[in-house]
Amino acid sequence: MKTNTISRSGKSPIKKVSANKTKPKGIGRVERSFFPGKELPRIYGPGDTNALEQGFLPAWVSKNKKSVEADLLEYGAILFRGFQISSAQEFEDVALSLDKNLKTDYLGTSPRNKVTQFVHTASELPPHYPIMQHAEMSFLDKPPRKLMFFCAVAPKEHGETPIADLRKIYEDLDPDLLKKFETKGVKYIRKYDGPNASRYNLWKTKRWDEMFSTKEKKQVEKIAAQQRFQVEWLPEDGLKLTNKQVAVRKHPVAKTKAWHNHSQVFHQDAARLEYAKILKQQGSFRSLILAGVLYVLTFLKKKLVEPKDQDTNVIFGDDSEISVSEIGKVSQTFWKHLSIFSWQKGDVLLIDNYSVSHGRLPFSGPREILVTWTD
């Protein structure tokens, strides 16, 4: 039986299958579109009833992988919306069809819980925490190539996962500031409590045994050395990690340059600056209160603790400070290019981690977003 080729316009005819035969998976039409007025993400949706069948999407992706890869390379993010994906395992099947090389090692800062072999919760941080725009694990020498998110439970209000084109951030950032970042690079400073500490406190996100998946200090030192992290053991079983990294990266295939660092995540003023933007975007009394609280707490923390002693901080690679004004310009540029859209149950969001960033807006009530990634 001859299989139809799906064109970029989504206009190819539908192949009819005899009712007394089993219909092959992946035979159906997929339409491509965008949200009105937005360039991100590229949206793939069902074009006929065949595309609504369970198991359709992974089969279709496997048959049309070159087309999907071409769109991902061009746009940087693809949202699969309206397909019958209802569980973590079905999401993992879709993810494996997109890329067989899924990974489970995670050296990021957000607490995550494992759900299937390759699927984790996106973040176990409290819902009022803002997660600023970033490329996944950009502080590593080799960050993940792709990310896949899945909406298992859509929030009723807020809780979006905004995305931004990192190539446009690179092009639009103040030229003098960009040159400074690109020349000096960045240095990350992070502190983690030991295995016996509480999982959460006001500023830290998780313990070092959760980050490295071991309670053995020798194993921690081995993994850290592989990532060029400088290790310093602190009193009360604490750990301090320091590493220098580039601020800009070239795409491994397209060779385009993109802003690629965690400066506006780890900077001591990052959360305060982010909530000022969130207040304007959400306009809620809750965000007003949290914005005020963060302003006061950040002020006190900076007065009482030296930058080198902060639990998380980022400075230039030559040890000079990244000023509030400078990180404010970075934040402003990101919000200028931010694409914010509401989750729908069953959504699968594919991101090129070298081209597009992601974050999380605060929310209340039920919300479950799952994630997996490649090398």
The first-level CATH class of the domain at 30-128 and 137-156 and 341-374 is given as: Alpha Beta
Continuous helix count: 11
The assigned CATH architecture of the domain at 30-128 and 137-156 and 341-374 is 4-Layer Sandwich
Counting copies of identical and different chains, the oligomeric state is: single chain
CATH superfamily of the domain at 30-128 and 137-156 and 341-374: Clavaminate synthase-like
**Computed Rg:** 22 Å
Largest sheet: 8 strands, mixed
Per the CATH scheme, the topology name of the domain at 30-128 and 137-156 and 341-374 is Double-stranded beta-helix
Q: What is the typical, i.e. mean, pLDDT?
A: 88
Strand content: 15-25%
Q: Which structural class matches the secondary elements?
A: alpha+beta
Straight-line distance between termini: 36 Å
- Helix-strand sequence: EEHHEHEEEEEHHEHHEEEEHHHEHEEE
- The low-pLDDT segments are 1-21
Give a count of the beta strands, DSSP E runs of length 2 or more: 17
Residue share in helices? 25-40%
What's the shape? globular
Protein name: Taurine dioxygenase
Keywords: Antibiotic biosynthesis, Dioxygenase, Oxidoreductase
GO biological process, one term: antibiotic biosynthetic process
Cofactor: Fe(2+)
